[in-house]
């Protein structure tokens, strides 16, 4: 019951006001969010990218926080921010960084054309700076629109990608469609939204099985894959696949900044390719609540850190 409750709270304005009013939110947020400004995110990524004492550095994927935009002005501001971020990444060369974009931040809730115009503007600008743009996947009712946005973006640049959520029952078919179209550049995640059982697998076992099956499906097709999970069981499955003959394209592990840092450190020490997802911006509340919903110990660790200050 805790996870659905936390996800529900992530959408409540009154709950956000309460968290902000308590005065401790910045200490808690700092564990998972780079800061309010893009410069904070770029500086963090540059630090993480450095190899030190034989330990491999990590690459980055930036996300400007925000979602469910209904104001066209706010959607346009997000487009401007992402274009500026692409320029900042280009200026920070040789930083290997991508950008993750939520369709609802670009105004998908306003209209599909609004989101498409914004996305194509971002992709065109990002391409000029050699930056890859990846669409994040949100709730199940936005999947079709998100995949269509990805197809439109992919038509103008191969420096694009999309997230697929393995807990959704429809995802094997979606993955096969991308494979058949030759645009399977996928960030594979479990899924972080509260969906009904008719739409999504429920429980750790079924979701892991679905993840493994879709990973194998993509692996054998020659897709580019980001193994985006903090689950050591799925990490082991990916390593096993990597030892088998296949036509796999580029692949890497991906994790969220601040989540399971000891696991990320161990992966870097083994010399494994790792990309850290680094969010930034003032609209951190929904993001933070989903991170706690996925792993309640995230909050406990952060609260212990606050208590020790």
Description:
This protein is α/β, with parallel strands linked by helices and 309 residues long. Helices cover 50% and strands 14% of the residues. The chain contains 13 helices and 8 strands. The protein has helices at residues 2-9, 13-21, 25-29, 38-49, 72-91, 112-128, 143-156, 171-181, 204-221, 232-242, 261-269, 285-294, 297-307; strands spanning 59-64, 97-101, 132-135, 160-165, 185-189, 224-228, 251-256, 274-280. It has an 8-stranded parallel barrel with strand order 1-2-3-4-5-6-7-8, surrounded by 8 helices. Helix 10 (232-242) links the parallel strand 6 (224-228) and strand 7. The longest helix has 20 residues, at 72-91. The chain starts with a helix and ends with a helix. The model is unreliable at 305-309 (pLDDT under 50).
Features:
50% helix; 14% strand; eight-stranded parallel β-barrel; disordered C terminus; alpha/beta
Secondary-structure map with pairings?
Blueprint: H1 2-9, H2 13-21, H3 25-29, H4 38-49, E1 59-64, H5 72-91, E2 97-101, H6 112-128, E3 132-135, H7 143-156, E4 160-165, H8 171-181, E5 185-189, H9 204-221, E6 224-228, H10 232-242, E7 251-256, H11 261-269, E8 274-280, H12 285-294, H13 297-307
Parallel strand pairs: 1-2, 1-8, 2-3, 3-4, 4-5, 5-6, 6-7, 7-8
Helix pairs in contact: 1-12, 5-6, 6-7, 8-9, 9-10
Class per helix and strand makeup: alpha/beta
- Report helical residue fraction: 40-55%
Main sheet: strand order: 1-2-3-4-5-6-7-8
Give me the number of helical elements.
13
**Sheet with the most strands, sense and barrel status:** 8 strands, parallel, barrel
Low-confidence stretches: 305-309
Radius of gyration: 18 Å
Tell me, rounded to a whole number, the average pLDDT.
88
What is the overall shape? Answer: globular
Query: What fraction strand?
Result: 5-15%
Structure summary, number of beta strands = 8
Order of helices and strands: HHHHEHEHEHEHEHEHEHEHH
């Amino acid at each position: 019951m805790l996870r659905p409750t936390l996800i529900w709270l992530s959408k409540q304005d009154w709950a956000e006001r309460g968290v902000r009013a308590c005065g401790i939110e910045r200490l808690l947020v700092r564990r998972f969010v780079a800061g309010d400004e893009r410069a904070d995110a770029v500086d963090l990524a540059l630090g993480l990218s450095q190899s030190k004492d034989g330990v491999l550095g990590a690459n980055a994927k930036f996300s400007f926080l925000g979602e469910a935009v209904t104001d066209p002005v706010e959607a346009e501001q997000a487009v401007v921010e992402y274009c500026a971020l692409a320029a900042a990444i280009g200026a920070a060369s040789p930083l290997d960084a991508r950008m993750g974009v939520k369709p609802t931040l670009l105004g998908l809730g306003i209209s599909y054309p609004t989101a498409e115009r914004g996305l194509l503007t971002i992709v065109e600008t990002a391409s000029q700076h050699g930056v890859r743009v990846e669409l994040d996947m949100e709730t199940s009712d936005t999947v079709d629109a998100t995949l269509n946005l990805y197809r439109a973006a992919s038509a103008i640049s191969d420096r694009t990608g999309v997230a697929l959520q393995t807990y959704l029952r429809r995802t094997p078919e979606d993955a096969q469609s991308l494979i058949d179209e030759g645009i399977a550049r996928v960030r594979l995640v479990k899924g972080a939204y509260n969906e009904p059982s008719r739409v999504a697998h429920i429980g750790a076992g079924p979701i892991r099985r679905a993840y493994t099956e879709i990973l194998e499906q993509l692996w054998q097709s020659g897709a580019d894959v980001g193994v985006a999970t903090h689950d050591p069981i799925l990490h082991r499955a990916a390593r096993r696949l990597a030892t088998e003959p296949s036509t796999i394209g580029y692949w890497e592990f991906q994790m969220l900044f601040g989540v399971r840092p000891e696991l990320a450190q161990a992966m870097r020490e083994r010399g494994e390719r790792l990309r850290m997802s680094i969010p930034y911006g003032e609209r951190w509340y929904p993001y933070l609540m989903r991170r706690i919903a996925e792993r309640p110990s995230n909050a406990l660790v952060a609260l212990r850190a606050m208590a020790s200050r």
